[in-house]
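Protocol step 4 of 6: structure prediction from sequence.
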Amino acid sequence: MKMAEERKSEEGRYIYCMIDFKEKDPEKNFGPLGIGERGDLLRSLNYKDVAAVISNSPIKKYPVSRENCLPHQRAVEAVMKEGFTVLPVRYCTIAEDEEQVKKILKRDYERFKDLLLKMENKVELGLKAIFDEKLIYQDILAKNKEIRLWKEKLMNKPPEKTYQKRIELGGMVESALNTEKEKAKAQALRTLKGLAEDYVVADNYGERMLLNASFLVERNKEPEFDKKVDELNERFEQRVKLKYVGGMPPFNFVNLEIDLNVEGVKLDAGN
């Protein structure tokens, strides 16, 4: 029990991401952005031309919460804004000390180099598409004669006498709505995926969302991607609203899991 309590009080090194490191100075400081609200300095620790971005941190399990995950994410974003290619590391990866971090860098150097090369000059762009319930419903009525006629027939009849018919109408509207959502989703993906190296479609949240996607795009293609999003926005008019976020680290395409066991790895002289 005493050993466990002592370990909790130990200072470790929280690892946020791996970066390509071509700086002349052996360490780069990114400011007091460390997790845990202590103002710990975010800094690089390099091996050859690859570096881990770390900060001091107690060796503990940070709960998965907004107040913990946001500092992790913001730290990686701040590093990327400095012009580095970044490989986000899995949340709450904490090494015992800097020597362990260096041994990880040495052991996985080739792996990190390969991934950095793949992610070089690429950004993640996020797109969420949310339909306007009222306008989509009006669109369905305009397009679907059968639903429109059913609605007109039931409009002036007592609800208690048309209960079953209204349920059937509701089912028809829901089916038509799902069809429209799938069409809009397919149209958005068809328009945008050709400009992406890769893309990921995540689960929707809320009944009104029809697409929640992330795209990995070459930086030089970002203006063209922006233009395609604008075209989609015009095509959807007001029926579907797009929420577009650009220039992010590739969180949905890289989430490095690091084995902290470095037993047997020996550092070179001078490292």
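Step 5 (inspection) to follow. The longest helix spans residues 163-192.
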